[in-house]
Write a structure and sequence with these properties.
Blueprint (H helix, E strand, L loop, with lengths): L2 E3 L10 E2 L6 E2 L4 E7 L2 E7 L7 E2 L1 H10 L11 E3 L5 E2 L1 E11 L2 E10 L7 E3 L1 H6 L2 E4 L4 E4 L2 E4 L9 E6 L3 E3 L3 E9 L11 E5 L4 H4 L3 E3 L2 E3 L6 E7 L5 E3 L4 E7 L8
Parallel strand pairs: 1-7, 5-11, 6-10
Antiparallel strand pairs: 2-3, 4-5, 4-9, 6-11, 7-8, 9-10, 12-13, 13-14, 15-17, 15-23, 16-22, 17-21, 18-20, 18-23, 19-21
């Protein structure tokens, strides 16, 4: 059985998140905003990882959008720092969105119920001619660049919580009202984008998918889509955390 490594990640590693500040960190790695099958999240850039990895929490959320077919034949044995084994569920091909482009790439799905949600490994970096500029804090994929979030640096980032309770009928999509946990007026001229919260995978078990949308920093209330894919009515209570808000320098409108 082939053995591959996960660079700076150990079998017990996870991205830490400070609920009070919204800062995210991981030793020795950089983060970039990506989408996986249309679901927004943050990915670790790990040049020491042999393979690209999807975490179990994100996998559960993706399954609500598209049922992935996992391949378990000839699976490599993954090891973290110190030779610690990393349990896996299988391999699958997913669509990864970076800097307004979508790339079909194979990923290994972790069996651990911890973050990180996604790790971009050396296999993806080599195939797509990627470059990581530490001085400019840019990650470039086939001439398309996205700004990186360095380790242990607080970002322009706030939590998004439900402004009032809401009932979601079965198989519906509803725009729900949310409020930021802190002022986002300093986020800049452009809108801030509401992204999937790091713990929203819990809702996947109830058939809920939290969408993402652009929001205006000068508004007190923001609206994001929530889909109920289950056969029963779901209730979300006031104050429920649904997502995160990040500053963006630009965005591209896609029809």
């Amino acid at each position: 059985m082939q053995t591959t490594t996960l660079g700076s990640l150990s079998s017990d590693s996870e991205v830490s998140s400070d609920d009070s500040t919204g800062s995210t960190s991981h030793p020795g790695c950089w983060l970039i905003p990506i989408s996986v099958e249309g679901i927004n999240t943050l990915a670790l850039i790990d040049t020491g990882a042999s393979v690209t990895l999807m975490g179990w929490p994100l996998y559960q959320t993706v399954q609500q959008v598209r049922a992935l077919k996992l391949q378990t034949h000839n699976m490599p044995r993954l090891e973290g720092v110190g030779g610690n084994p990393v349990p896996t569920l299988g391999c699958a091909e997913v669509e990864v969105g970076i800097a307004a482009r979508v790339y079909k790439t194979p990923v290994v799905v972790s069996a651990r119920k911890k973050r990180p949600n996604f790790v971009i490994g050396a296999d993806f970096l080599a195939v797509h001619d990627c470059d990581l500029s530490l001085n400019q804090k840019l990650f470039t994929v086939e001439c398309n660049s996205v700004r990186c979030i360095p380790e242990r640096v607080k970002t322009s980032h706030a939590r998004l919580k439900l402004a009032r309770w809401v009932k979601l009928p079965p198989h519906t999509e509803v725009l729900v009202s949310c409020k930021a946990t802190q002022s986002i007026k300093h986020f800049g001229t452009f809108c801030a984008v509401a992204q999937l919260a790091s713990n929203s995978w819990h809702y996947a078990e109830d058939g809920l998918v939290i969408g993402s949308s652009l929001v205006a920093p000068d508004k007190a209330t923001h609206h994001i889509p929530v889909m109920n894919l289950s056969d029963s009515t779901q209730t979300l209570h006031e104050g429920t955390q649904l997502g995160d808000i990040f500053s963006v320098e630009s965005f591209k409108h896609v029809q």
